[in-house]
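Subject: design request, 291 residues
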């Protein structure tokens, strides 16, 4: 069951396509485990439905999947005359439709592969429109700037779109608006500057490299921080310890804030229910008085 697509059921004599996930001995027999949740199933279905992949004209460069919900497939063509995305979709979408039907309606996004991450990441985040990609190489993170009206589309339902794009590109992706980035930069510079041993110039350098929170600073390689600030090992250890303590404080404050919000929401719901009951009682009394 763990290798089945969520919500999918099968019955005797049904034709089922699956990949061989594992083969192992079970006593005197051999046990074959089939899977329908692995990305390899999507890969094989593409090979069956799209001849250009078998011929080597189109190559599947990367794939990310959340079985039963959505997959992203990055493809590239070795022949400029062949549109890799169009060939995978097929005439009137017939090729991709066959794959989607086989996967029980799972949504499949076909994106154009590019070695340049500043091109690949916006492609992977489609259908959202991206303004700018800022690569933070020391962290392996990409800060992606979008307009306010594209924010929810870029993130996707329950973070699915950005999560799959991250898996496809191999980089952590953080979606922000220009205003949110500016606020994060100001907050980070002020926060780092408040740490003992961190001068303004070092704080700004850290932010330029994409370190925007105390958590980020707590995972920096000590040798990198030593080089950036011309610091000794003891100074670096002291700064990192302060950052970790600040991160714990911030997390505790966030947990407390969430508790207060839940309590406020609960009280508001109780009050709303009470008002609704009172309004209904008043309406009933009015109706009885008129009768």
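Subject: RE: design request

Done. Sequence follows.
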């Amino acid at each position: 069951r763990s290798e089945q697509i969520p919500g999918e059921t099968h019955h005797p004599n049904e034709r089922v396509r699956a990949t061989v996930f594992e083969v192992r001995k079970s006593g005197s027999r051999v046990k074959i485990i089939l899977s329908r949740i692995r990305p390899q199933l999507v890969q094989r279905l593409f090979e069956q439905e799209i001849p250009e992949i078998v011929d080597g004209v189109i190559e599947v460069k990367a794939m990310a999947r959340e079985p039963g919900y959505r997959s992203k497939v990055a493809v590239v063509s070795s022949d400029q005359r062949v549109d890799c995305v169009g060939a995978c979709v097929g005439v009137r979408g017939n090729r991709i439709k066959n794959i989607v039907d086989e996967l029980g309606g799972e949504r499949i996004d076909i994106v154009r592969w590019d070695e340049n991450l500043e091109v690949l990441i916006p492609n992977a985040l489609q259908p959202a429109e991206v303004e700018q990609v800022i690569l933070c190489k020391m962290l392996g993170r990409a800060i992606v700037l979008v307009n306010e009206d594209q924010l929810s589309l870029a993130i996707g339902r329950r973070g699915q779109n950005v999560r799959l794009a991250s898996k496809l590109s191999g980089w952590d992706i953080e979606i922000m608006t220009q205003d949110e980035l500016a606020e994060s930069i100001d907050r980070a510079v002020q926060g780092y500057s408040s740490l003992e041993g961190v001068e303004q110039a070092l704080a700004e350098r850290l932010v330029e490299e994409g370190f925007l929170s105390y958590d980020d600073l707590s995972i920096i390689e000590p040798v990198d921080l030593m080089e950036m600030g011309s610091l000794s090992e003891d100074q670096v250890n002291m700064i990192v310890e302060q950052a970790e303590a600040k991160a714990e404080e911030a997390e505790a404050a966030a947990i407390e804030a969430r508790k207060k919000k839940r309590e406020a929401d609960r009280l508001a719901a109780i009050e709303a229910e009470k008002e609704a009951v009172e309004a209904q009682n008043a309406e009933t009394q009015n109706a009885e008085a008129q009768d």
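Strands lie at 19-26, 29-35, 58-66, 70-77, 107-112, 132-136, 141-145, 172-176.
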